[in-house]
Amino acid sequence: MTWEPERLDDQRHLSEGDPGGMLPAVAASAAHIRTGYRNAVEAQVDRLAGHGRPRAIVVAGMGGSGIAGDILSAVVGSGAPLPIVTVRSYQLPGWVGATDLVIAVSGSGDTEETLSVAGQAVRRGCTLLGVGPAGSPLAAIATQASALYVPVPVEGQSRANIWLLSVPLIVAAAALRLVPADAELFERVAKSLEDMAHRCRPSSESFINPGKSLAMDLAESVPMIWGSSAPTAVAAYRLACQLNTNAKYPAIFGELPEADHHQVCAFDGPMAERDLFADTAGRTLRLVVMRDVDEHPQVTRRREATLRLARERSVPVTELAAEGVHPLERMASLIGLGDYASTYLALGYAIDPTPVSAIAELKARISQ
User: Fold this and answer.
1) In order of start, what are the domains of the chain with their CATH numbers?
2) Which of 296, 240, 233, 285 is nearest to 259 (CA)?
3) Which end of the chain is more exposed for a tag (fewer CB within 10 A), N or C?
């Protein structure tokens, strides 16, 4: 597999190389915001308020579904009057009980880890909210337990339906008065994602297309992707995951200030070395920093010092700034860009971004 940037402006290649339709799926993000909000309202998730505020919120999900919990936590913010925990495993923590809200999220509706946690939540008497496809095993668990369930029209890979799966959680948090989020906010986010889709459309050439430009930055590098706040850290983690699944590409995720206590040492390592006289460029480290207007002042100082340190060592740097006022807007601006970039990176390597054959093979081996 070789990187050929000219593929990104070859409209025939972009169409034929993406038979699963990952680019159209990313372009549907704005519609997913609106549908997720509408379905949550129609499912009457505001009835959660009748149970009173829970002691804690536990979100159960894996892969593209599990990140919904991270999005919820970042939107509610550090001022939340309760803990919001994401569980990515088969086991519900021992401290979770009847006074807690468990939100089970599954794009397929049959994720075995999530079904396991949902079943445990019912047995412990927790309040349960399910989010996933209608008629799925997860929906059956919620129905049998007389729990709330938000059916969402998931198509294709769960990772391409991030907003369908995440928005109902934010609507639920708003009903519990944990965060202000109304129809106007979701419409603003949807419009910003529409603008991103226009700027990153396949017919837009690489030199003005932010999604293609970021893909070109990432190509032939080992990206180390850092966020500088809770919303940007979620976007950084999402980009690393999307590079793994869409482009089948390695990536390292970090968050400031923690990354400055270990990952920064990679600036002095073998992956940071560059041979200026080599005939071909080697795969070297690239630092990608996602910055936010809502950074702790000390984090801002660390970020600026870290960028200087990287440049002094000739480590390539890409800076991305979150756009918007509300944390959800800022997070969505970076997630939308990253989703396009990871898809274009795959296509630049002539990789079909949709299949995840290694995951499918692993599941088959486990089920034997």
Assistant:
1) 5-20+200-348 (3.40.50.10490), 29-182 (3.40.50.10490)
2) 233
3) C
Using CA atoms, how far apart are residues 184 and 80, in angstroms rounded to an integer? 22
Q: Residue holding tokens 């299949």? A: 355
Other CB atoms within 10 A of residue 160 CB: 29
Residue 63: predicted pLDDT:
92
Cβ atoms of 137 and 110 within 8 Å: the answer is: yes
Instruction: Single out the residue of 217, 211, 278 nearest to residue 251, CA to CA.
Output: 217
| Mean pLDDT to the nearest integer, 122-126 | 97
Residues in the chain: 368
**Beta bridge mates, 132:** 151
Model confidence pLDDT, tens digit, residues 14-60: 999 999 999 999 999 999 999 999 999 999 999 999 989 999 999 99
Please give the distance of CA 102 from its chain centroid, rounded to a whole number. 20
Are 344 and 239 spatial neighbours (Cβ–Cβ below 8 Å)?
no
pLDDT of residue 282: 60
Name every residue whose Cβ is closer than 8 Å to that of residue 49 and which is 6 or more positions away in sequence. Answer: 175, 176, 177
Q: Are 219 and 3 in contact (CB under 8 A)?
A: yes
Give one word for 44, left, alpha or beta, with left for phi > 0 and alpha for psi -120 to 50: left
Q: Does 275 have pLDDT greater than 80?
A: no
Mean pLDDT to the nearest integer, 128-140: 98
- State the DSSP H helix or E strand holding residue 113, giving kind and residue range, or none if neither: helix 112-123
Binned at pLDDT 50, 70 and 90, residue 367 comes out as confident
Token code pair at residue 45 = 């998730």
φ/ψ of residue 348, rounded to 5: -65, -25
Q: Which residues pair with 319 in a beta bridge?
A: 289
**CA–CA distances in Å: residue 344 to residues 89, 217, 283, 355:** 31, 11, 18, 15
